[in-house]
Structure formats: structure tokens, C-alpha cells
Amino acid sequence: MKVWPITALAKDYPRGWHVPKHRHRRGQLIYAKSGVMHVTTREGIWIVPPQRSLWMPLGMEHEIHMEGQVAVRMLYLDRLSSALFGSHCKVLAISGLLRELILSAVQAYAEKHRERMTILAPLLLHELQEANEESLHIPVPSDPRLKNVCQRLLAGTSRVETLDQLAAHVGASSRTLARLFESELQMSFVHWRQHVRLARALSQISQGHAIKMVARDAGYASCSAFSSMFHRVLGVTPTHYMKQVIEPSVVSSRSP
Predict the structure, then answer these.
(1) What is the dihedral of CA 217, 239, 208, 203, to 10 degrees?
(2) Number of other CB atoms surrounding residue 255 within 10 Å
């Protein structure tokens, strides 16, 4: 087979599947056709919901945890093409056009359709360069006390605990923890916890859970407060996002 700048792979995973640490000799675009992934690297934890994709630089060690059932579509870029997207991870918004290009590339590569891959590759690279980057990144700390707190929050065992309560749990003052969040993670405790809650909410929404239940589980007293946070981070309301992630998967259920 001709060596194209882009190769592709489709793989479906069951709920809770864990892909252990590994790395690739090519840059990798990890796209969630359905379901939500948490991808962990030395740079932090990256949330990859439907209609979003994670750029993984070549040689970057990473592991993946599947929230629910996940249909993953992956593109692998050669060294020259990878240089276009940098050496750091980033989450990219996937437009309708990009989504169809990714799925078409996966199918064309599987079928060894040379002419189609030759046409698709440059258009895919162009559209990926134009894709908007989104802030779905959860940085991880090195300080043992802060790491303990973050693990509790990520595990969902302390969703409503205050900073004072978390500080008492790890034997530190709330002031110390607040300072560590700012110095190690470059964000406040509230901001970091918001990202964790958003990660869980994205997973629940992609599974069709009611927005009211998702908002309550995320610790919000009202749907409007949750919707405001959601819109601020993702640029769409939870209801609009639910339509984005559920309707495309129904329309193109036969896609690769």
C-alpha cells in the first residue's frame, strides 16, 4: 500500500475499558465518535467527548480510560504532517465537515481506496488546522497532598466537600491547598473542580441522562446555573450539546 501522510483505525471499546500507557511513532488524532474518554499524559488529563478530538503528539506517552461504551476513530499522521499541530496535547472541536472527513478517511483506509485517500488527506489536514482548540484539560499536580485531593475529586467521592474539608483530610490548611492549586495547576480549586464536574457531565449527557439529573449530580442547585457554566466552557448549552452528540450517531450509525 502507498505510504500516505495519514493512516486510520476504527475501534470500539466496552464501558470502563482501560488502554495502558503506550506511545506512537506518529502523531495521533483521537476522535470520539460516541462516548467519552479520559486521556492521561504527563501534561494532565484530557476530556474527549463526542464531537471533540484530542491531538496526541508523536512519542507522547498516554493512557486512555473509557467512560461508558466508546467508539474511537483514530488518524495517524507522519512526522511532517505532525509538525503542523505542535508538540503539546490539545482538544479540537470537530465540525460536521471534519467529522465526515474523519469517518470517510477511516473507511477509505480500511478499504485500501488509494484515490480517495489521496484526495481526503490534504483536505483533512487543512480542516484540522482550522479547528478551534477547547479548554477540556485537567492538569495534574506533583505535591502529594494536592494529588490526594485531586484523586478524591476525580473519583467522585468528594463532590460536595469544601476546600476546608479536603484540607483536613490530607492534613493541610485550606490556605496551603489554595496556594498549591494556583502554583502547581495555574487555576483555582473552584476552577479545577468545575473541569472535573464537566468531565462527568459530558459522560452522562452522551449516555442520554436528563439535564436536570446531570446538573444535580454536578453539584448545581439549578439547571440554569449548570447551563451557564456549560455554555461558558463549551460555547453551547447542554441541550444543544445533547442534540450534537446523540443525533449524529443515530443518523450515521452505519458509518465506520
Answers:
(1) -60
(2) 18
Q: Among all chains, which residue has been given the C-alpha cell 503539546?
A: 88
Ramachandran quadrant class, 219 (left: phi over 0; alpha: psi -120 to 50; beta: rest): left
**C-beta pairs of 146-153 under 8 Å, 24+ apart in sequence:** 146/177, 146/180, 146/181, 146/184, 146/185, 149/177, 150/192, 153/192, 153/193, 153/196
Residue 159 class from Cβ within 10 Å (0-12 exposed, 13-18 middle, 19+ buried)? Answer: middle
**Contact 48/32 with Cβ under 8 angstroms?**
yes
CA atoms within 13 Å, Cβ hemisphere of 252? 16
What does the alpha-carbon distance between residue 141 and residue 129 come to, in Å, rounded to a whole number?
30
Please tell me the total number of residues recorded for the chain in this structure: 256
Within 10 angstroms of residue 209's Cβ, the number of other Cβ atoms is 14
pLDDT tens digits along 235-247: 888 888 887 766 5
Distance of CA 242 to CAs 25, 52, 113, 201, 216, Å?
Answer: 35, 13, 34, 11, 17
At 121-145, the pLDDT tens digits run 999 999 999 998 887 788 888 899 9
Q: Under a CB-based contact definition with an 8 Å cutoff, are residues 181 and 187 in contact?
A: yes
Residue type, 18: H
Cα 50 from chain centroid (whole Å):
8
